[in-house]
Design a protein that fits this description.
Blueprint: H1 15-30, H2 38-58, H3 68-115, H4 125-145, H5 149-176, H6 180-200, E1 203-208, E2 213-218, E3 221-227, E4 249-257, E5 267-270, H7 275-286, E6 301-303, E7 317-318, H8 321-330, E8 336-340, H9 345-351
Parallel strand pairs: 1-8, 6-7
Antiparallel strand pairs: 1-2, 2-3, 4-5, 4-8, 5-6
Length: 372
């Protein structure tokens, strides 16, 4: 009661210390600190002992009362409660940062899966995984908005793991129908390209037609990856002019064309057809696979004006203009360009160490390129 807190013998009961300790404990509880363990449990214990000490002193004759121990206990309770709140704040800040990173990674994963969705069977475990990942992602966003960062991080991690499962299933799906010898050839081309870049401290380009990506390699490390668009029949092996397929092989940049020198904003001209392309073309013509009047085609480029959300060129590789600007400034005439049907996952894991994903834009253009 009020009598417990009367002044006595020139010494006042530690009213301010009591309310400071109680406020600190309530604040810690408000932050979601577990009151049963750790500093907050110790704070509550000290607070309870302080109250008992006040009661003991109050029961004494006024001139025999001493509230020093009670005041010390209230102070200890306040400090321990503050410590528990501080620990939770640091934990929440760490969990928030972790959640931010996981959500950003999930965004990139969903973007990639959306990009290749047209190649995923309508009813498949791949799409099921993507749907499950979106459920976890939505839960993570909701928990994040409510300030429940640790639970949000766990949900975001689950979303990323499920996206990873979908990507692995998609890779197995694509490779299951591929010619094993082709896969080995693609892997060899990629390894050789990266090894050449490392040995010569130079730039190189790898284009993965399956994933619709163009990756810039510098001194053997992947430093930029851009979204790419292909020919209308881009996943096929280019064989002749007019087939609107994107070629596969090892090429080099023969010319850089800036604005005004190409209808596609900027362009990097490639040495298609090379000797391998011509040999394959002649072989197909001898076997009657193509018309005797057909030509092998030419004018294959990496150019701008991409961003249409699908394959649309006559065989070239298109980037959005801002990515084309970035790439154009980083490479030169003679830069190797390796184009593969797909990259084997183990090759990607071994060779790539510093990929920086870049999102595609929405560049506008009219019509596709000339006859390739």
């Amino acid at each position: 009661g009020a009598g417990v807190w009367l002044a006595a013998g020139g010494q006042e009961a530690p009213v301010a210390a009591k309310y400071r300790a109680r406020a600190a404990i309530e604040a810690a509880r408000g932050r979601g600190v577990d009151p049963s363990t750790g500093p907050l449990a110790a704070a509550q214990e000290a607070y309870g002992e302080a109250l008992k000490e006040v009661s003991r002193q109050t029961a004494r004759l006024r001139w025999n009362r001493s509230y020093g121990r009670a005041e010390a206990l209230f102070g200890a309770a306040a400090r321990r409660a503050d410590l528990s709140a501080s620990l939770v704040l640091r934990r929440d800040e760490a969990a928030r940062g972790r959640t931010d990173r996981l959500l950003s990674r999930a965004d990139a994963g969903f973007e990639q899966m959306d990009w290749i969705s047209s190649y995923i069977p309508p009813r498949s475990a791949i799409r099921s995984d993507v749907r499950k990942a979106r459920v976890s992602y939505t839960e993570a966003r909701s928990l994040y908005a409510d300030g429940k960062y640790e639970r949000a991080a766990a949900a975001a991690l689950q979303a990323n793991q499920t996206i990873g499962s979908a990507a692995a299933r998609f890779s197995r799906f694509m490779h299951a129908s591929a010619d094993p010898s082709k896969g080995r050839q693609y892997a060899r081309w990629v390894r050789d390209t990266i090894a050449w870049s490392a040995a010569n401290d130079s730039k190189a380009i790898i284009i993965d037609k399956m994933r619709r990506t163009l990756t810039l390699v510098s001194n053997g490390a992947r430093v930029r990856t851009y979204r790419a668009e292909l020919g209308i029949n881009g996943t096929q092996m280019k064989l002749m002019a007019g087939d609107r397929a994107t070629p596969e092989g090892r090429y080099r940049i023969t010319e850089k064309r800036g604005p005004g020198r190409t209808r596609w904003y900027k362009a990097l001209m490639l040495n298609y057809p090379n000797e391998d392309d011509l040999r394959r073309f002649q072989h197909a013509k001898r076997r009657g696979q193509i018309s005797k009047r057909a030509g092998p085609g030419n004018l294959i480029e990496i150019h701008g004006e991409g961003g249409r959300g699908g394959d649309w060129t006559d065989g070239c590789v298109a980037l959005v203009n801002r990515d084309m600007d970035d790439l154009f400034d980083r490479v030169g005439v003679g830069t190797p360009v390796t184009i593969v049907g797909f990259e084997e996952d183990d090759v990607v894991r071994r060779a790539g160490t510093s990929r920086s994903a870049r999102r595609g834009g929405t560049g506008q253009a009219s019509g596709a390129g000339g006859l390739r």
